[in-house]
Design goal:
With about 300 residues, the protein is an alpha/beta fold. The protein folds into 2 domains: about 190 residues, 3-Layer(aba) Sandwich (Rossmann fold), CATH 3.40.50.300; about 60 residues, no CATH class. It is built from 8 helices and 9 strands. The strands form 2 sheets. A 6-stranded mixed sheet has the order 5-6-7-3-8-9, sandwiched between helices. A 3-stranded antiparallel sheet has the order 2-1-4, covered by helices on one side. α3 packs across α4, α3 runs parallel beside α5 and α4 crosses α5.
């Protein structure tokens, strides 16, 4: 009996290969601002990844590249085997932006806000079907906003607005959820509730989650993989330890003990003399999560 062929390997959720990006110069004699320099990383399906870095370290730029809103100056990015733009337009990516307060000015109900991404993918003569309406209802229930579905978004509290935007991000059935600084301005109790919600969604929906933040405490509750970004990034797929001195250097303050149970082996790749570590472009299976002592992108 012939051996059945092996199933094709599942592509990574995110594959970033030697990506660099520079913002254009403002004047003829000025040089452009280098935000990212040869960043390489792989995020496997189902992973919970935290991307840490200081303000101006390139985190927002990396998100825009992952979403297909920017194109790399060099290198490439694939999301589930397709371009970021294809992934975004096909609904593979759910996104929670950093600045959600602007949504308060929309003359829309909670349900209408959650439905927006689906509606944008319809032809002008099409309407949301029964299945899509059920997906919206399910998303609202998962974030405990079903009872507020008909309220105007301008009347919501900060926590309710955030849950509404999370429902919008998951209603279309994405495989990847990207969250940009989701805990800015949120108190400790609110951070705990947010972490519980994100972890529940990750498990129940089988999501890959990427949370970008400069808050080390925030990352501890929602990530089991950590990457350090300050213009350059060296991803550690299975971190086993924490080097507080280097993180303290990146963030300019003492971070010992901040990460709790989430550990990252962080030091400069060129200074990595530990024979148990191997440094590769994608940093899989062991490597160094480091940073650049000099450059700071935006």
């Amino acid at each position: 009996m012939p051996t059945p062929p092996d199933k094709p390997a599942q592509p990574p959720a995110i594959e970033v290969d030697a990506v660099s990006y520079s913002y254009p110069a403002m004047g003829l004699r000025e040089r452009g601002t280098e935000a990212l320099d040869r960043v390489s990383m792989i995020v496997e399906p189902g992973a919970r990844v935290g991307i840490l870095g200081p303000n101006g370290g390139g985190k927002s730029t990396l998100i825009k590249l992952m979403l297909g809103l920017l194109k790399p100056r060099s290198g490439s990015i694939r999301v589930f085997g397709v371009t970021p733009r294809q992934a975004r337009l096909s609904g593979l990516i759910g996104y929670l932006p950093q600045r959600i307060e602007a949504q308060r000015g929309w003359p829309l109900s909670v349900r209408q806000v959650v439905a927006l991404p689906m509606s944008c993918r319809l032809k002008p003569w099409q309407r949301l079907g029964t299945e899509q309406s059920e997906d919206i209802n399910r998303a609202l229930e998962m974030v405990a906003m079903a009872d507020h579905a008909d309220r105007p978004v301008g009347a919501l509290s900060g926590g309710q607005l955030q849950r509404t935007m999370i429902a919008r991000a998951i209603a279309g059935g994405p495989r990847l959820l990207v969250l940009d600084e989701p805990m800015v301005g949120v108190d400790v109790a609110g951070q705990q509730r947010f972490a519980e919600l994100i972890n529940t969604l990750h498990t129940e929906l089988g999501l890959t989650t990427v949370i970008v933040t400069h808050d080390l405490r925030a990352i501890a509750a929602v990530a089991d993989r950590v990457a350090c970004l300050a213009r350059t990034l060296h991803f550690h797929d299975a971190p086993e330890g924490l080097t507080p001195q280097v993180l303290a250097d990146v963030f300019a303050h003492d971070v010992a003990g901040v990460l709790g149970d989430v550990h990252v082996d962080a030091h400069l790749a060129e200074d990595c003399n530990d024979p148990s570590h191997t440094h590769t472009d994608h940093q899989q299976g062991g490597g160094c999560c480091g940073h650049d002592h000099h450059g700071r992108g935006s």
